[in-house]
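Minutes, project check-in
Item: structure for the 219-residue chain
Input as provided by the requester:
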Amino acid sequence: MTPRILVAILVMTGAASEARSQALPTIAEVINGHTEIVTYRGVRAVKLVPALETAGKDEDMMAVLAGPEFKNGTIQLSVAGAPRPGMPADSRGFIGVSFRTGPHGVWSDVFYLRPTNGRVEDQLRRNHAVQYVSDPEFPWYRLRQESPGVYESYADMEPGAWTTMRIEVAGTKARLYVNGASQPCLVINDLKHDDRPGRIALWAHVQTDAYFGPITITR
């Protein structure tokens, strides 16, 4: 993997166009890209844009949030991801949230979505719609090979549409809820970095048009 490009940037907080008390996150550092404040499908959002140097590479990008470290609690926000124009046919629009993230993103636990898998006719692809990974030791392909079906699951979603993610973290366990469901679509009982605290970061693959709406964090 090539060295990551670090860019420090601050984002002004603001309210979404919807009548909610949430605010856009304040960004302390961006890895492998930069952020822009835009309006996407009627919602004021942070857009995560890949650095030019990542073109053609298999890299992720992160926008690390300002504020104290996160250990236990709840993170809720809406995300919208779809493959960028001209990307390979196997692009999925990977987008999600990194929690308990190490300095400069050197390690992290991540829940992310594959939005283009949500409504395809291929059932196996549907089963890979949501994913947990723990970087750098446990990428998706290692978890899938060693524990098939344990760290990924299905949830209904559409590429490019706003999708609500709620992540509940307690000790070495985490649960992911999608679009207000009362039951989690993915339950992780053995977070690979144990209960080590870290920062929260917006996360996406460099092949993704990635938008993040207002966020609520309860510690």
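Outcome recorded: Residues 6-218 form a domain with the Jelly Rolls fold (CATH 2.60.120.560).
No further action items on this chain.
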